[in-house]
Write a structure and sequence with these properties.
One of its GO terms (molecular function) is acid-amino acid ligase activity. Keywords: Ligase. Belongs to the IAA-amido conjugating enzyme family. This is Jasmonic acid-amido synthetase JAR1-like. With 584 residues, the protein is α+β, with helices and mostly antiparallel strands. The chain is 40% helix and 19% strand. The chain is built from 21 helices and 20 strands. An eight-stranded antiparallel β-sheet has the order 9-10-11-16-15-14-12-13. Strands 2-1-5-4 form a four-stranded mixed β-sheet. Helix 1 crosses helix 6, helix 11 crosses helix 13 and helix 11 runs parallel beside helix 15. The chain is globular and about 70 Å long. It binds adenosine monophosphate.
Length: 584
């Protein structure tokens, strides 16, 4: 069991005290942020004049998106060391995954963000461990670093997760939480993702008796890892049998590190081989390989939900536990109800890791409608409410003020308040706020798309096939515009089934604007384009080339015009097209 140095009961008490007093803690957190950064040019420009109360803050500092902050961030990136966004100069930059808009965004990173990351990791761990206690051992973590580089101004840059993995605090926290990765650093920080993945799998097998849980940042990487396992398992067994690493791993540092772990072990090779051949269609693969694993852990909500079905298949009876909620710009909430399945999971906001505001979406839609008829200068800004003022059942766009120079920042996520943990809200992640699919009066979000794909994929399941991954696009190249859904399917489906799937997709978008437009043909027939196996892997590789890391990768669910390379990859790999006849 866990060592004394980490007193779980005390930590739970601390969390309870913090959340009972969430309103006051929020005001104190804002005060601290504004005191530490009062000298920053950004806050000075808005005339805050050293005031640290929420009213002055909201009156002086505007709501912003990354676009407004970009010029400030760019100066930091280019090496201007003055107090621009923060009191203390920023020395490190994070690259957000940027899968939504097609290119990674630069975000300031500092020690305070590391500290809040550790705080959130510890918080969710204590609740998780109360429910699913782990023993001494290791974690099979499919984590990867991005390319690290120096910006023009000499600042270190990499994805936020890479910056975290590199920090000394990460290592020490993981040790205390008994969550040390079973792979050596050379594998985590290896320059070739495919080679790192192979070696993560190999390390997992070598330490199979010690693995306490299997994890990654986002669930996508876990599914990807075990899909790969299905391809390479015999090679892995051979490596274990002979104690020699496959020649496909060529990075010298990885080979050296692995040679220290890999010894000929025919018994283990036979055992793994037997386990694999004994499985039916790989159901229950994870517990079969890792008998001591207590759960599978990683972010499983939002755009990760489509991978749950496959993950459950690999997990067999093992519980799936979603990780926390945050972004490169800072953490928001911890999963303090780990017993809930990911579909019902919520995140309790930690009131001391940032200052949070919430724009009510219902009021905002009404206001937006009124605003549309007004000239720009008369339009009102949306009015956010504070952390403890949110209402159960309502949806909000979340605004973050962090310790790293982002003030009243519109993160772009929609959340729903499902309850309170003491006086801090528990949030359900709904979707990214930017509307996904729209041709005219129709509005369909990431969630609507996910539901449509789930419904249509049921028709494939009858054929023992599945949707490996999917995305969408609005095609305006012919009149009227229409939705295009791209599917990668696990095998060959008949044309008949696929055209049924296409009709089902079209009928599953139940938004009134869509249905009425389809009936009068002001939106064209939905098109299903099936792409070659491996196309989504090519998209992942494309983002890795831009400096993203697999750890933070999220398949873009709608490919807009700014994502032209992704669109090219998709279009170049189409093998079959279907047009819906559902509204003929
Ligand atoms: P990144 O751009 O890589 O920093 O990713 C941050 C984004 O990932 C957030 O703004 C969310 O849209 C998404 N995200 C992070 N955590 C979760 C979560 N627990 N559930 C759903 N989506 C999440």
């Amino acid at each position: 069991m866990l060592v004394e140095e980490f007193n779980m009961e005390t930590m739970i008490e601390e969390f309870e005290a913090l959340t009972k007093d969430a309103g006051r803690v929020q005001n104190e957190t804002l005060k601290k942020i504004l005191e530490e950064n009062g000298s920053a040019e950004y806050l000075q420009n808005f005339g805050l004049d050293g005031r640290t109360d929420p009213e002055s803050f909201k009156a002086c500092v505007p709501l912003v998106t990354h676009k407004e902050l970009e010029p400030y961030v760019q100066r930091i990136v280019d090496g201007d060391g003055s107090a621009i966004l923060t009191g203390k100069p920023i020395k490190t930059i994070s690259l957000s995954s940027g899968t939504t808009h097609g290119k990674p965004k630069f975000v300031p990173f500092n020690d305070e963000l590391i500290e809040s990351t550790m705080r959130i990791y510890r918080t969710s761990f204590i609740f998780r461990n109360r429910e699913f206690p782990i023993g001494n051992g290791k974690a099979l973590q499919f984590i990867y670093s991005s390319k690290q580089f120096k910006t023009k101004g000499g600042l270190a840059a990499g994805t936020a997760t890479t910056n975290i993995f590199r920090s000394s605090q990460y290592k020490s926290t993981m040790k205390v939480l008994h969550s040390q990765c079973c792979s050596p650093d050379e594998v985590i920080f290896g320059s070739d993702f495919h080679q790192s993945l192979y070696c993560h799998l190999l390390c997992g097998l070598i330490f199979r008796e010690e693995v306490q849980f299997v994890s990654s940042i986002f669930a996508h990487s876990i599914v990807h890892a075990f899909r790969t396992f299905e391809q390479v398992w015999e090679e892995l067994c051979e490596d274990i049998r002979k104690g020699v690493l496959t020649s496909r791993v060529t990075v010298p540092s990885i080979r050296i590190a692995m040679s220290k772990l890999l010894k000929p072990n025919p018994e283990l090779a036979d055992l793994v081989y037997k386990k694999c051949v004994g499985l039916s269609n790989w159901y229950g693969l994870v517990p079969a390989l890792f008998p001591k694993a207590k759960y599978i852990y990683g972010i499983m909500t939002g755009s990760m939900e489509p991978y749950l079905k496959k993950l459950r298949h690999y997990a067999g009876e093992l519980p799936l536990v979603t990780a926390d909620y945050g972004s490169s710009e800072g953490w928001i909430g911890a999963n303090v109800n780990p017993q809930l399945p990911p579909e019902l999971a919520t995140y309790a906001v930690l009131p001391n890791i940032g200052y949070f505001e919430f724009i009510p979406l219902k009021e905002n839609i009404e206001e937006h409608e009124q605003n549309k008829s007004l000239p720009t200068f008369l339009r009102t800004e949306p009015k956010p409410v504070g952390l403890t003022e949110v209402k159960i059942g309502e949806e909000y766009e979340i605004i973050v003020t962090n310790f790293a120079g982002f003030y009243r920042y519109r993160l772009g996520d929609v959340v729903k308040v499902t309850g309170f943990h003491n006086s801090t809200p528990e949030l359900k992640f709904v979707c990214r706020s930017n509307l996904l699919l729209t041709v005219n009066i129709d509005k369909n979000t990431e969630k609507d798309l996910q539901l449509a794909v789930e419904a249509a994929a049921k028709l494939l399941a009858a054929e023992k096939l599945e949707v490996v991954d999917f995305t969408s696009h609005v095609d305006f190249s012919s009149e009227p515009g229409h939705y295009v859904i791209f599917w990668e399917v696990s095998g060959d489906a008949s044309e008949e089934v696929l055209s049924e799937c296409c009709n089902c997709l079209d009928q599953s978008f139940v938004d009134a604007g869509y249905v009425s437009s389809r009936k009068v043909k002001s939106i064209g027939a939905l098109e299903l384009r099936v792409v070659r196996r491996g196309t989504f892997q090519k998209i992942l590789d494309h983002f890795l080339g831009l400096g993203a890391a697999v750890s933070q990768f999220k398949t873009p669910r709608c490919v807009g015009p700014t994502n032209s390379t992704v669109l090219q990859i998709l279009c170049a790999n189409v093998t079959n097209k279907f047009f819906s006849t559902a509204f003929n």
